[in-house]
Structures are given as structure tokens and as C-alpha cells.
């Protein structure tokens, strides 16, 4: 999930063991995406989610009380900016030289699925893409490093 989708989650999107949502970016397509809640996700929900669990309430507190679409968009942008900053601080402490951000995290998750031999159709579905070509181009930029590694052996 990207951060915009996470921030817009409401309690009606969460059942016992899964999240069922529509991407904010492609909401008009009316395509549901299902994500199984694993132990790590459960810990995040237990620690950071709003305790009030009415169906229409946001799961996370960022957009509570913000009704204007313009202000919501600005708040999402700010949350992503702060998150990216924190990710880079953590990365620096871990000795990671590459820039880290939520965009890279989403790509990395998809790439890990691909490298674990997950079917492209499943990756496409989990990313919320309509076309395989979108998923392939999404993964392609990260596969270049793997390609270079193999070509270096020639």
C-alpha cells in the first residue's frame, strides 16, 4: 500500500485478518485490493491506530477533523515528507547510502515479491495496477541492477 491509501483507511476497510480497500489514485476503477494482516501489521495497528473504531473513522489519526480535500492532500504530503526524512535517518544509521522513501519501499516490496517467484498477476493485483505493462515498468527499473550483475559476468 502507498501512504495515501494507508492514511485514508477507515475501520470499515479492516476485518479480522485482512484489509480490503480501493486505491485513492484509481478509486474510479472500483477495484478492491485485499491485503492479509500479518503479525507486524497487527503490532502497528495495536500501537498507532485510533482507539475509536467506528466504521467511518480513520484508522490512523492524520486526517481526523480535516474535511477539505485540499487540506487532506496537504496533510498526506506532509506525513509522507516526514516519513521519508525518518526513513533516511534510519537508513543512515544502518549504513544505507541510497535515498529511502515511501516510493522506494513500495517498489522494493514488489521487487521482493518478484524475486520470490510470486506470479506477476498477483503483484499486479497487490499494487492495484490495471495493466501488466504498468507493473512490468514498475519492476523494470529495479531489475536493472540484477541485469547489470548478470551482464558483468559475461
Structural notes for this entry:
With 154 residues, this protein is mainly alpha-helical. It has a domain at 101-154. It contains six helices and two strands; from the N terminus they run αββααααα. It has helices at 3-7, 39-48, 69-93, 102-115, 120-127, 132-152; strands at residues 18-21, 33-36. The relative contact order is 0.11.
Estimate the strand proportion: 5-15%
How far apart the termini lie comes to 38 Å
How many strands, which pairing sense, and closed or not: the largest β-sheet? Answer: 2 strands, antiparallel
Question: Tell me, what's the shape?
Answer: globular
Topology of this protein?
Layout: H1 3-7, E1 18-21, E2 33-36, H2 39-48, H3 69-93, H4 102-115, H5 120-127, H6 132-152
Antiparallel strand pairs: 1-2
Helix pairs in contact: 4-6, 5-6
Brief summary of the model shown:
It comes from Emticicia aquatica. This protein has helices at 3-7, 39-48, 69-93, 102-115, 120-127, 132-152; strands spanning 18-21, 33-36.
Keywords:
single chain, 154 residues, mainly alpha, two-stranded antiparallel ribbon, 54% helix, 5% strand, globular, DNA_brk_join_enz, Tyrosine recombinase XerC, Integrase-like_cat_sf
